[in-house]
Amino acid sequence: MRVAVYPGSFDPVTNGHVDIIRRGAKLFDKLYVVLGKNVSKQSLFTLEERIDLTSKAVADLAHVEVIVSEDKLTVDLAKSMGASVILRGLRAATDFEYEFTMAMTNAKLSPEIETVFLTADNEHMYLSSSMMKEIAKFSGDVSNFVPKGVVDALKEKFDD
Ligand code: ADP
Fold it and tell me: Residue 20 Cα, ligand 1 centroid: separation in angstroms?
């Protein structure tokens, strides 16, 4: 059984994340989407909101499950879930340095866990959660970039 974890902040989940999850789901028997409890970045959405929005966005995928990482290193979380792969998405060159460093560090910590990268497709190459928050803050239309539930949640956050 091939099990993978896909860790991230998902603050909020975008169509780019969902694309990686859909494509990753085809490669693994079980895919855990892992939301960090203590993200170093200040998050807009609470953990509960991020779980809810992400779960709804992938609800049709039977072997995908959204879980929370309880103050654990990703490699330890992977091991505790029986996963041998950490899945990550790569957008432009800007992601490379950070992702490479992270993958190397995780490989040093746990050589038996592999990091697998899926490249973003053309349509989602320039999508980021922070960009979505910026657009929504100024009442821009994000409906082409995020799942429906996230469009509404962003509107609610920035409604005065
Ligand atoms: P983190 O805070 O761990 O970077 P993110 O939620 O920003 O969490 O991203 C999680 C993963 O998804 C990262 O590997 C990131 O590169 C990838 N990712 C983010 N946006 C996209 C996108 N539009 N297309 C493909 N992969 C993406």
Answer: 9
